[in-house]
Structures are given as C-alpha cells and as structure tokens.
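Data availability excerpt. The first of two example chains:
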Amino acid sequence: MASGKLLRQLISSGARGDHTAFRAATEAVIQEERQKKHHLLANDLERLLYAEQATFGDGKGGGRPTFSELPKSSDSSIPLMEERPAVRQEKDIVLSDEARSVLEEILLEQNRADLLRSYGVQPAQKLLFCGPSGCGKTLAAEVLANSLSLPLVLVRIDSVVSSFLGETASNLRKVFDFVSRNPVVALFDEFDALAKDRGDDSDHGELKRSVNAVLQMLDSYRGESILIATTNYDDLLDPAVWRRFDETVRFEMPNLEQIKRLLELKLSGIRRNFDLDAGGTASLFKGLSHAAIERVLRRAVKQMILSGREFLELADLKAALAREYNKKQPQG
C-alpha cells in the first residue's frame, strides 16, 4: 500500500482539480509499488492512468504527444484510428530468443536511424507480426512504442473496410496520410482482413481492390512512423504482401522455459505457498498462450484477495486453470 504522504497528495490534488499534481502523485504511487515488487498492481495502475491521458487534463501524458483529431471514415464519420496507452516495457514481455533478437535489432536500427540514413540505408519500418492469438504480437507493438517514446495508434479495420465502391481505398489513404505526417507506431491488427489473398473467389471485388490499395500505399510510404501489421492467419495473406515488409517476426506458443519465465514475471511480488521450480508447475500451463496464462494468474490472484488470504496457493492456480480449460470445451 502506498505511503500516507503519497495518498494525501493524491487525494488533495484530485479534490482541487490539479491535474498535473494528481498525475505526478499517481506516478509516484506506481513507482513505489514497483519498488515493493507489486508489479501486477503497478501495471493495473499504469493502465488506468495512461488510458485516460487523451481526455484527462491537458492531454499531455508521459511525454508522448496526443492528437486532437484522428482521421474519420467518409461514409460513417467513425474514427479510422484510436490512440492506445503504451506503458509496458521490454522486461514485461516473454518471447522466444529468435523473436526477441529481431525486436532488439529493430530497436537498434530505430535508435541509430540517422547513422543508417547517412549511409543511404533505411531502418526497418514496415513490420509483419505473425502467430497464434494471444502470443504477444500486440504487446510487442506496445513495447516498441514505449521504448521509442512514440504514440501507439491502432488502425480500426472495422472502420477502414467499407462496402461502398472505392471507400476502403479512400479510408486507407487517410490513414497513410496521417502516419506520414505524424511519427507513431501504427498497428494494423488482423491485417488479413485488409490483405487477403486475391485468389480467393469467395471475396467480392471491393476487398480485392483494397488489397491493391494496401500494396500501393506500402510501396509508396516514406514517413517516419513504424507500421506494424499483425495476423493470426498468415496463410490467408496475399502472396504479394510479404515482400512489402522489411521484417517478419514470428510469435509462437510459449515452451516450458518461457512459461516458467512468464510465471516468475507475473507472480513477482505475490506471496505464495509453492515453488515455481518444484512439482512441474510450469507444465500445468502447457498449451496455453501468453494471454491465457496471464488471464489464469490474474483470476487466481483475485481469488486469493477476495478470500482474505495473504498467500497464493497451488490450488488457486489449478482452479483458475480448470475454468480456462472449461471455456475451451464445446458447449452441448
């Protein structure tokens, strides 16, 4: 629990409407909780704080710029993009050695972009993240944005894709114009909805035209933003899409070693009555994605708290796991 001094500062600044002081006090609370190794609480507090940064106070958060207006769809006036908080860091993500190595190389290239450009070479800017759902693709985009102090902006595919002739291409042009003018990390989640194989006869003509538009805009892109496309179904992508990206990063389901690291990371600061190294605890989670494992741990910790106990038990994990596996069973 945060110190009395910090709590008094937090409540006092909030009561008098001093947004700057409130933010500073909240960040001090988060830092104090991290020092106590209460990482789950600190992460939740960060998400609450930074998720509101675009509407709270003066809209300036974490030193990252926010945008007064994002492009909108012509036919529905719905925003084509939305800004997302980027608070997670490299230490908050568990990846395979290969994926981590590629991401570290991308970060190095971005941090030494001026040097590369002085030799006539461009840093990697167009990235394709492939792999099963819940294995860290979106989290990796957030980590890159945080590491480079760039805003993270999600491209809303549901708003971009239109049934009206030519409207999808028009929406895409607005998105690419925006990221060309504003340095951001632009996340095209579920990219296969925009760049599906044109050989699929089941799709109508507008979707085929959208693929052509995507290819042309990726080819002509010259901005400073980092464009990240993610897909859970890389086999659905049009073959011509692949060569438009500078790097492809594959995300896999975690192996036992990665599961163990994930458990150590997420349970750091949580008092428990079992040893993660003993009894094959990590093997209980085999076959689950990173997101599913985090969901199970969060559920188990909540049960511990609501039961009024100070220590997490192995039984809490097993009960939370049982609920997760039951969700996957087909309903009769």
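And the second chain:
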Amino acid sequence: MKRILFTLLFFLTISVSAQEFDKGKEYFDSLSEDDKELMTSLVEDIIFNLIDSVMEEGMYMKALDLLDSVNANWQKTFGVEVPYQMYLKKGQVYMHLEEWQRLVDVTTECINKKNGTLPNQVVPIMYNMQGMGYSNLEKYKDAIRSYENALSYYSKNEDLGSQGDVLCNIGHCYNKSRKLLSASSFYNKGLLKFLEYFKITKKQLLQRELKVYDSYEKTLLNSFAAHLFEMAVYEQNYGDKSTSKEYLLMSAHCGLNLAKSEYQRIYGHY
C-alpha cells in the first residue's frame, strides 16, 4: 500500500512519461472502490501537509507550483474533480502574495463549482476571503455582498468570533465608501460580538490585557485588535475623541504593539 501511495503521489506532483502515467493510472483503476477512496484520502492528507510545510517556510510560489501541478493531474488520476481544499489552499497563498484579483477568481470558482457540496463551515470562509479580495481591490459593494453571505453562514453556525470579524470588515467597507453612519453601526455590532465571544466586557478590557492560548483564538484576537485600532482612527477622524482613546487602549490590551506605542505617544503612558 505504501508503495502504491507514493507512486500515485509521484504522478500527481511531478512530470512523468505518458507510459509511466498510464501504468500508474491502470494500477489505481484496478483497485476496489473502497481502496480508491482510501488512497485518494491519504494522498490528499500528504499533499496538504506538504503544502502547509512549504507555506510555513514562506515559499508561497513553490506552494502555488505544487497546487497547479496537483490541480492539472488530479481529475485524470482519480476520475473526480479536485477537492475544495485545493481552492482553499490556493486562496491562502494568494492572500499571502496579495494577489487580490486571483483571490477573488479562485474563491468565486470554488463557490460556483462546489455549490451545494461544500461543508457548511467552509462556505463562509470562501465568502470572507472573496470579500477580502474585493475590499483590497476597492470594490466595496462587491465586498459587502460577499461579507454578508459569509455572515449569514456564521450566524447559522453561531460563530460569534467570526461574526465579529465580518461585521467589522463590513464597517471597514462603509468607512472607505464614506458612509459613516453605516460604518459606525457595523463597527459597534462587530465589537459586541467579539466581546461576547471572548466573554469579556468593555469595562474589563479597558482595565486589563486579554490573554488567550488557543491558536484559533489568537488569530481572532489579532483580528479584534486590528479592528479596534481602525475603529480608534475612525473615531479620531469622525466621531468622539474619548471613544477613540478607549478603542486604542482596548486594542493595546488585545496585544497590538502599534496600539501600545501610539497610546504611549499620544497620552504619555501605557
């Protein structure tokens, strides 16, 4: 089994002759349906672990080359369309490379091709990534539509942290569109969802730093801190100066070093 697995992985990731490919394909086709399913699953795990390792090393173009090679050979090897994880990984690479139009394209392709077959927890991730692409392209109406689609799924899943993130992203789009009342409304909605998720009140966050230890929660905390900093800037420019000071301190208490240095620069202490 191990020999078969690595042979198939070889066919997926590097160029081989037509004769060698046909022999490998013939061998795969001779397996039972259960063995084919197991083989496909094992190859998926190996490929995604490999790509994750390459991305962790910062070699995003190498990861993209691997994904392109796998996408080109997957269907003719296994006789099924590429799994949604391929689109997800590609989207993550484009985010790191700041290739925003390509991010929009790959998430749109995934949503359209995999409509009805994507796991419920993956659909909002795709819409959120799509929204990020549109937002960075300054197509804010399109971004808001994508974020709203993501929000509807996160609401069904009762994912408070992700709801907070998306609501603040919508606030950002309205801010950039100079629709200030809508921006303020969505920023505040996002703030409340984040506070509910982290089980902390605004008063408590103003008094102490918020510590988390789970990697997923750390990612959400970083997003919360960044949104709070943006909200502080928003209030400084268009709203209430005392509220801006509070948001800046809250951002610092969520661990954003820029917020800490800015608070100290403006107010002389932290």
